[in-house]
Amino acid sequence: MTKHIQLSFTVLVIFSIFVLGVVGNEYKCSEVLFRKSKCDYQECGLMCVLKRQGLSSCTKQGRFFICSCQYQCP
């Protein structure tokens, strides 16, 4: 009984790692869309969807905000 539970747990862990690895590799490439003193999240998201159909993010680097787009590599 104990070995059956241990085997089931091991299979569950291996399956979870495999699924997370596949989902985690979905968006690999990224591109900087613009650098401004203020980041407009709607503009950043719209540009990313129109240009690459990916996920956008605004991050602050020094004095500027950088709008970047993560998308699936071709």
Automatic annotation (TrEMBL):
InterPro entries per record: DEFL
BP GO terms, sorted: defense response to fungus; killing of cells of another organism
Keywords: Antimicrobial, Capsid protein, Disulfide bond, Fungicide, Plant defense, Signal, Virion
Keyword Transmembrane helix: no
Family matches, as Pfam families: SLR1-BP
Entry superkingdom: Eukaryota
Segment forming the signal sequence: 1-24
Family: Belongs to the DEFL family.
Full protein name: S locus-related glycoprotein 1 binding pollen coat protein
Organism from which the protein derives: Arabidopsis thaliana x Arabidopsis arenosa
